[in-house]
From TrEMBL:
<dbReference type="InterPro" id="IPR008254">
    <property type="entry name" value="Flavodoxin/NO_synth"/>
</dbReference>
<feature type="domain" description="Flavodoxin-like">
    <location>
        <begin position="24"/>
        <end position="167"/>
    </location>
</feature>
<dbReference type="InterPro" id="IPR029039">
    <property type="entry name" value="Flavoprotein-like_sf"/>
</dbReference>
<dbReference type="Pfam" id="PF12682">
    <property type="entry name" value="Flavodoxin_4"/>
</dbReference>
<protein>
    <submittedName>
        <fullName>NAD(P)H-dependent oxidoreductase</fullName>
    </submittedName>
</protein>
Length: 170
């Protein structure tokens, strides 16, 4: 069984060199497309404490969390992750890797023997070190080739997603 697990942030975001208000985060857009394509369960990670809506405040908080290796808690998810063999884990690229709420999730779950397909949205930094960071946090999981989607292209990424999935899922 497959699940698409993701963290996404709406509100003020950096898109094509400008700050824009997004009613739906770019990673959510991509996660929904992947889940629809695979007919997979969609699981959203929601931090217990929201990140600031203001982009600059969020960037500063994300940098502080990364530097201090903080692991923000997220709201309980009702799904039993042990039921899934394949996990598609999505996130925005913050400071060259995944947000710390994703690190919290990865550390708290038993992911041994699972296959993980990382995907991220970004505005120029692609996957950064997120795949190697994920391998470090999940040494007993199989981490597959990731997909990086430019956030400003999330809404029109259907073909890119289909090509990635068709290459991975045979």
């Amino acid at each position: 069984m497959r699940a698409v697990i993701y963290y996404s942030r709406s509100g003020e975001n950096y898109v094509n060199g400008q700050l824009k208000q997004l009613s739906k985060g770019n990673t959510m857009v991509v996660a929904e497309k992947i889940a629809d394509y695979l007919e997979a369960e969609l699981i959203r990670l929601i931090p217990k404490k929201d990140y600031p809506d203001d982009y600059q405040e969020m960037v500063e908080l994300a940098e502080q969390e990364k530097k201090e290796q903080k692991h923000p808690e997220y709201q309980a998810i009702i799904q039993d992750i042990s039921n899934y063999d394949e996990l598609f884990i999505g996130y925005p690229n913050w400071w060259g890797t995944f947000p710390q709420v994703i690190a919290t999730f990865l550390k708290q779950q038993e992911l041994s023997g699972k296959t993980i397909y990382p995907f991220c949205t970004h505005e120029g930094s692609a996957m950064g070190t997120s795949v190697s960071d994920m391998i470090r946090l999940c040494p007993n999981a199989k981490i597959e080739t990731g997909l990086a989607v430019r956030g400003s292209k999330a809404a029109v990424s259907d073909k890119t997603i289909a090509n990635w999935l068709n290459h991975l899922i045979k």
